[in-house]
Design goal:
Length: 451
């Protein structure tokens, strides 16, 4: 079925898509021969819409000439949408992506499809392609049109990571699995604020006020947690506390923050995306290289969407050398496990930093002044949310650490710790070292907060 709710003949859609692709290719060859520029972006999509309409009109004429029942106007529209989705969208996956209640889609072959919903439910749904080969073909089409540059997905390049136009994050593998596997992760809050996270129970109003002041005070923050714990959503909310007058450079392995989608919040944004090597094995641009590039682009803030490897050293050096107010995320199972995770990545960098050097880079000397100021830890929990006890998913911020200094290892105090409901609450027995700066940035501490 399409997003309109009408069933379509997928074999017909596949054939029509091939005809549209042939006409578009012929048009582009003619344009190149005449020295005319190639259409791109929205112009390319509008051209495709026109060609799709023409191809479907020819199909209707053929059907009528053969004495067959022609499609209705609604069915023609459904066909056009399905063909367009095969060219620029997610094909038969599109109906799943158009469902606002679905968060994640996991595909273990074209007919083994599982979806996770926002309330924590997980169900198996119908096939998303007629065969595994068709599934691979659809992913290849997405790889050609999504992201900042076309990416290959074939036997020579069996791994693929990219962001779809709606912000969905796609990860796919082939050849190294018995059947092609695809995972799609959606983000329900393309435009999210700390107040939204207070409203849905992710964090308390007190912690929201604290984090807002941390961002305004230009402190460096690492958001940590397990996969799907809400790190990127919290990162978006913190970024939205940055003044619109500031210039932001983002570095991501696969674009998903989408700050340029909201110019009213951040009019001056440069988004950098890592690029794989081409078919000849050259042209790769890694995260570390992009982080170094941002430092030459006059940024007020550098945002690293997710630290995945050796770029951590470049990022920490930038943070410790005056690029204040930087934000990033990292995978970790515990708040203090962040420091060892950073050390693991630092050993992979060209500098080959050992654990002592890494911890000193993170924390600086006595009293701090290192690269990081705060670690904010997110976690997810399973909890019954329905009458039949079906497990639901709850995301929350459970802890905040403040980096205090270095003494053979990073020294950090737990200024927010898990409360009775699991959410972080102020640990009044531990003073906040940066409190004076946070108050100057607008933070209003509670009556029991230590000065």
């Amino acid at each position: 079925m399409t997003a309109t709710g009408l069933a379509v003949d997928h074999a017909l859609v596949r054939r029509l898509q091939g005809e549209v692709a042939e006409r578009l290719s012929a048009t582009r060859r003619t344009a190149r021969a005449a020295g005319r520029p190639q259409p791109a972006g929205e112009d390319e999509r509008q051209e495709a819409r026109s060609v799709i309409a023409a191809v479907i009109a020819d199909e209707v004429a053929r059907t009528m000439a053969a004495g067959e029942q022609p499609p209705t106007a609604e069915e023609e529209l459904a066909l056009a949408d399905a063909v367009f989705a095969r060219l620029f969208g997610a094909g038969r996956l599109q109906v799943l992506l158009d469902d606002p209640t679905i968060e994640n889609v996991d595909i273990n072959g074209c007919d083994e499809v599982f979806v996770s919903y926002a309330d924590g439910r997980r169900d198996r749904v119908g096939s998303v392609a007629g065969s595994d080969a068709e599934l691979v073909e659809q992913v290849q089409l997405l790889a050609a049109y999504a992201g900042l540059s076309a990416r290959a997905f074939d036997d020579a390049n069996p791994e693929l990571d990219l962001r779809l136009p709606d912000g969905t994050r796609l990860s796919a593998v082939r050849r190294v699995t018995a059947r092609p596997a695809v995972s799609l992760r959606r983000h329900r809050y393309p435009k999210v604020f700390l107040a939204d996270l207070v409203g849905n129970g992710t964090l308390s109003a007190e912690l929201a006020d604290f984090l807002s002041a941390v961002v305004r005070a230009r402190r460096n923050v690492m958001i940590a947690g397990e996969t799907d714990a809400g790190k990127t959503t919290l990162l978006r909310a913190l970024v939205n506390e940055i003044d619109p007058s500031e210039r932001i450079c983002t570095v991501e392995n696969s674009l998903e923050l989408g700050l340029r989608a909201h110019p009213e919040l951040h009019p001056d944004v440069v988004e950098l995306e890592a690029a794989p090597a081409n078919s000849e094995g050259v042209g790769a641009v890694g995260m570390a290289q992009l982080v170094r590039r941002t430092l030459r682009m006059n940024p007020d803030r550098v945002i690293v969407g997710e630290v995945l490897g050796p770029e951590v050293v470049t990022m920490l050096n930038a943070m410790s050398q005056g690029n204040d107010g930087s934000l990033s995320t990292i995978h970790a199972r515990t708040p203090r496990g962040v420091f060892d995770r950073i050390a693991t990545y630092a050993r992979q960098a060209e500098e080959r930093l050992d654990i002592d050097a890494t911890h000193q880079l993170v924390a600086g000397g006595e009293g701090g002044t290192g690269a990081l100021d705060f670690v904010v830890f997110c976690r997810k929990t399973r909890t019954p949310t329905t009458a039949d006890g079906t497990p639901g998913l709850r995301r929350l911020v459970s802890a905040v650490l403040e980096i205090n200094g270095y003494d053979r290892r990073v020294q950090a105090s737990e200024i927010f710790t898990p409360g009775p409901d699991g959410r972080a609450q102020r640990n009044h027995g531990v003073p906040i070292g940066a409190l004076a700066d946070l108050i100057e940035a607008g933070y209003e501490p509670g009556p029991t907060t230590h000065f």
